[in-house]
Amino acid sequence: MENQPNVGTQRQELLEAVLASGRELSTAAVMFHTKLSELRGLSATEGKAIDILLRFGPMTAGEFCEQSGLAPASVTGLMQRLESKGVARRVRHEGDKRKVLIELVGDQAKAAMPHFVDFMGGLASLLEGYSDEELRVIADYSSKAARIQQDAAGRLGAGSPGDKDDDGDRAPSPGSA
Predict the structure, then answer these.
(1) Cβ neighbours of residue 56 under 8 Å, at least 6 residues apart?
(2) Which of 92, 115, 118, 161 has the most CB atoms in a 10 Å sphere around its CB?
């Protein structure tokens, strides 16, 4: 009888491979979006904030906190930076004048699109090699993994002293200038 690898060992190796590839993809995504944002005169966080607003449309700061996992103070600073760069603005909610919405200015998708052409073409070629069922599994895993990571981001340092702001710099302590 041939020696067959332990099924438990094979599964463990597959799980490790999936997690390792996830780390590799995460790093590549962060580096790509950092470079893309720099080309547009933005921080990586500002670039991803634009992406959130493109996907979900105008929203309140509280809704943005929920979508991004960022703390309210970080969102306030982030929106001020986006306004100062002319890519977003705050406007009164038409249905409830007490609310303020954050909305994009201009066609931010069109402004970024030239930087995505090569990348999206590569992804399209890659995806051609997968069956419909495999694509459903990939989409399901990616979506669920993104939600898990978003939830984990929301729990990171929630309310603890010395939190970092949304660009990774130490947030000023209360009362400091």
Answers:
(1) 63, 67
(2) 115
Query: Given CA atoms 43, 47, 48, 53 in this order, what sign does their dihedral have?
Result: positive
Q: Is 168 left (phi over 0), alpha (psi -120 to 50) or beta?
A: left
For the chain, first and last CA: distance in Å? 74
DSSP structure class, residue 5: P
The predicted-structure confidence for 73-121, as pLDDT tens digits, reads as follows: 899 999 999 999 999 999 998 888 888 999 999 998 888 899 899 999 9
Q: How far apart are CA 84 and CA 106, in angstroms?
A: 14
Note whether 101 and 58 are within 8 A (CB).
yes
Residue with tokens 């949304």: 166
Q: DSSP letters along 26-57, please?
A: HHHHHHHHHHHHHHTT--HHHHHHHHHHHHH-
pTM for the model stands at 0.74
How far apart, in whole angstroms, are the C-alpha atoms of residue 134 and residue 104? 35
- Mean pLDDT, the chain, as a whole number? 86
Q: How far is CA 132 from CA 121, 139, 140, in A?
A: 19, 10, 12
